[in-house]
């Protein structure tokens, strides 16, 4: 004689149909919170791939947005490029929002120096999301971009590429508080 309780029957029904709801399984990584280990550069380039002379410590004249460190690009009036990038994992069914703060100081009078901000996501061609120039402003300004959701886990690479051309004045781009938040 088989005895099936109401609770056992409900459990069997849940197993057979795949669950009571269409939500995420409890074992999956949650889609909440800041996931980068060093968003404000307080630990130097930990968690980042950076060219030389990228991370600097702020002072009373050029303070960081928060904390004491930030990433500094260009500002020498020489022809060169600086690259800073990091890669994070975006779990399935999660959206990644990347927010960052930029400050620009310049002696340039026409566009020639740029800070291109890119976001490359698995399965989507890399794309420049922002192309900032000398007219960005000497006060910290916030920018944001997001990946959207997908049914599979992906990686996202966030990149900052500064390009400076000699002879047209110096432009320095400062970047701070690059948060990578899941939702």
Question: In short, what is this structure?
Answer:
With 183 residues, the protein is mostly beta strands. It is 7% helix and 44% strand.
Explain the overall architecture.
This protein has 183 residues and is mostly beta strands. 7% of the residues lie in helices and 44% in strands. The strands form two sheets. Strands 1, 3, 4, 6, 9 and 11 form a six-stranded antiparallel β-sheet that branches. A five-stranded antiparallel β-sheet has the order 2-5-10-7-8, with no helix packed on it. Strand 7 (114-121) and strand 8 (124-132) form a beta hairpin. The radius of gyration is 23 Å and the shape is globular. The protein starts with 5 loop residues before the first helix and ends with a strand.
Helix and strand topology:
Elements: H1 6-17, E1 33-34, E2 49-50, E3 55-57, E4 69-74, E5 80-90, E6 96-106, E7 114-121, E8 124-132, E9 141-146, E10 154-164, E11 171-182
**Unreliable segments of 5+ consecutive residues:** 1-27
Radius of gyration: 23 Å
The rounded distance between the terminal residues' Cα atoms is 50 Å
Helix/sheet category:
mainly beta
Task: Write the element-wise H/E pattern from the N-terminal end onward.
Answer: HEEEEEEEEEEE
Arithmetic mean of pLDDT: 83
How many E strands?
A: 11
* Helicity, as a percent range: under 10%
Overall shape: it is: globular
């Amino acid at each position: 004689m088989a005895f099936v309780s109401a609770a056992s029957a409900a459990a069997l029904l849940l197993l057979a149909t795949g669950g009571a709801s269409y939500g995420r399984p409890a074992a999956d990584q949650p889609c909440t919170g800041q996931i980068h280990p060093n968003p404000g550069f307080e630990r130097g380039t930990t968690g980042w791939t950076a060219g030389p002379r990228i991370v600097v410590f702020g002072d009373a004249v050029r303070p960081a947005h928060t904390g004491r460190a930030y990433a500094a690009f260009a500002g020498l009036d020489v022809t060169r490029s600086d690259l800073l990038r990091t890669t994070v994992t975006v779990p399935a069914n999660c959206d990644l929002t990347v927010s960052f703060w930029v400050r620009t100081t310049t002696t340039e009078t026409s566009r020639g120096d740029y800070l291109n901000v890119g976001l490359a996501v698995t399965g989507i061609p890399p794309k420049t999301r922002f192309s900032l120039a000398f007219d960005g402003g000497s006060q910290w300004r916030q920018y944001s971009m997001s990946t959207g959701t997908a049914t599979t886990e992906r990686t996202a690479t966030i990149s900052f590429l500064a390009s400076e051309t000699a002879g047209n004045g110096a432009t320095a781009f400062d970047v701070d508080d690059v948060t990578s938040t899941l939702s």
